[in-house]
Amino acid sequence: MRLLSLCVLILLSAGCAGTPRLSAIHNPLYRAENHTSTITARAREPQDGIAEISITAIVGELTACTESQLLPSLIPCRRNASAIGAVCVFPNTTAEVACTLPVAITPQRLVTYSATARSAANRTASTGSVTYAGGAPLTQTVMNIPLIGNIPINWETARPVIWRTNDPSAATDRADKIDWGFVPDPDMPNYRGFTDDLHSMVMTLFYDDANQYSVWPRTWKNLFNIWAGPAGADAEECTHSFGEPAASVRGAFDGTAVLHRNSFRDCASISLGGGSGTSQTTLPNFSGTSAEWVLLHEAGHFLFGLGDEYVGGGNSSISAPKNVYGDEATCQSNSTANGISSAQCVQIGMSGTWRNDDGLATTMEDPDHASDFRTLSGVAMSNRISACVGGACY
Amino acid sequence: MRLVLIASVIALTAASGHARAQEAPLKSESLQPTASEGGEARFIAPRPVDPADDPVNAKVAEATVDGLIVTLTIDGASVSLDGAWPARIPKSAARANLNMDGDAVRVSAFAGADAISEAIVQDPVLYALEGGGLVRQTRRQVVVAVPTDRAVDRIEVEAGATLARTSIDVRSAYDDHCKADPRGKWCPNKR
Question: How deeply is A350 buried, as exposed, middle or buried, from its count of CB atoms within 10 A (0-12, 13-18, 19+)?
Answer without folding.
Answer: exposed
